[in-house]
Specification:
This is DUF1295 domain-containing protein. InterPro entries: UstE-like (IPR010721). Keywords: Membrane, Transmembrane, Transmembrane helix. One of its GO terms (cellular component) is membrane. Helices cover 68% and strands 0% of the residues. The protein is mostly helical. Helix 5 runs antiparallel to helix 6.
Length: 174
């Protein structure tokens, strides 16, 4: 399926993706701050450590940043057609982050330490490399003189796919 040659606003697909993402984000909040932690402890025997919720706040903040970045990318940067299959697969992939990471931090009550701050910094750097690189490339692509050329400026001067490297950093450090 050649998606990159097809341009479309794909508004219904984007609405579906965003609605599913918002639902999954709410589930993340429910797990981290409402009775979801208790439910997982009771039914799946995942300990619900409530003594220190700093990690939960950090993870949920990360989830919101990821959601906002995805929304900006889809609304502003993405020009290609989104097939209906992608309207389900994209939210499913992000459900792994929005629900999976809260389940990983649910049993942890240890205070935030230096390694956590380092991971937070790498998450931020990854987000900047991914989204910042895409924003730079989008601005460059709008210039008619650049049509058909490969973007090798901005963050992309360091790597052909600096945006993917940014993805690796933020995913690995959550």
């Amino acid at each position: 399926m050649d998606l990159y040659g097809q341009k479309s606003k794909s508004i219904p697909q984007k609405i579906v993706i965003h609605l599913i993402e918002i639902l999954i984000l709410w589930l993340s909040y429910w797990i981290l701050f409402q009775s979801g932690g208790v439910w997982f402890q009771r039914h799946l025997h995942i300990h619900n450590a409530t003594e220190n919720i700093d990690r939960r706040i950090i993870i949920f903040t990360f989830n919101i940043l990821i959601f906002l970045r995805l929304a900006y990318m889809m609304i502003v940067l993405l020009k290609r057609k989104i097939p209906w299959e992608e309207s389900v697969s994209v939210p499913f992939a992000f459900a792994l982050y929005f629900i999976g990471y809260p389940l990983f931090v649910l049993p942890i009550s240890a205070p935030i330490d230096g390694l956590d701050y380092f991971a937070i910094a790498l998450f931020i750097i990854g987000c900047i490399l991914n989204s910042g690189g895409e924003i730079q490339r989008n601005k460059w692509k709008k210039e008619p003189a650049n049509k058909g050329k490969i973007y090798t400026q901005g963050f992309f001067k360091y790597s052909r796919h600096i945006n993917y490297f940014g993805d690796i950093l933020w995913v690995w450090n959550v």
